[in-house]
Specification:
Blueprint: H1 2-183
Length: 184
């Protein structure tokens, strides 16, 4: 009975020791967390300050870039304006050139039109003669086309007859071969 009681006491002691180890571990972890929190609290204002400074630097950079862009745009605008004025001047000169050439073209066109009308009258007579010749040649072509089509039909008809004769010949040949085989 004493041994059993002693064993029971031993178990109790072990349980108590294990509980104490767990409590020590928890306390140690709580201390580690507290130390980390203290460190974090100490750094937080410094980090907030750095973030604020970085944001200010970014704002300054954006403003500087914006000013540079505005200046660049102003330069581009001046260049575009100069180009536009130059093109307006060239356009006016080109209009004058076009107008004088148009006037010249009207004069030449009238002269040319008269020449063309004379040539057209000559050409019309030649065209009429050619049209008559073409008409005769087309009649010959139609006649030849009909003859060709008839010849083609006759050829096809002959071909069909030839096929029938060949088929008949083959049928007769194979019938004779069978008779010869049977007689053997």
């Amino acid at each position: 009975g004493i041994n059993a009681e002693y064993g029971h006491l031993e178990d109790q002691t072990t349980i108590l020791q294990n509980e104490q180890k767990v409590q020590d571990h928890i306390t140690k972890q709580k201390n580690v967390i507290a130390a980390r929190q203290t460190k974090a609290n100490k750094w937080e204002p410094k980090l907030r300050q750095l973030a604020k400074e970085n944001e200010q630097k970014l704002n300054d950079m954006e403003r500087k870039l914006l000013f540079e862009d505005v200046a660049k745009a102003g330069g581009i605008e001046r260049t575009l304006y100069r180009n536009m004025r130059k093109l307006e001047s060239e356009t006016r000169k080109q209009e004058q050139v076009c107008n004088s050439k148009r006037a010249l073209m009207t004069v030449t066109s009238t002269t040319a039109r008269k020449k063309v009308q004379d040539q057209m009258r000559e050409s019309d007579a030649e065209q009429k003669e050619l049209a008559e010749q073409i008409s005769k040649e087309e009649a010959i072509l139609r006649k030849l086309t009909v003859q060709r089509d008839n010849a083609l039909a006759e050829y096809r008809h002959h071909q069909t007859g030839l096929k029938d004769i060949i088929q008949l010949f083959q049928t007769l040949s194979s019938t004779q071969e069978r008779k010869i085989k049977l007689s053997d």
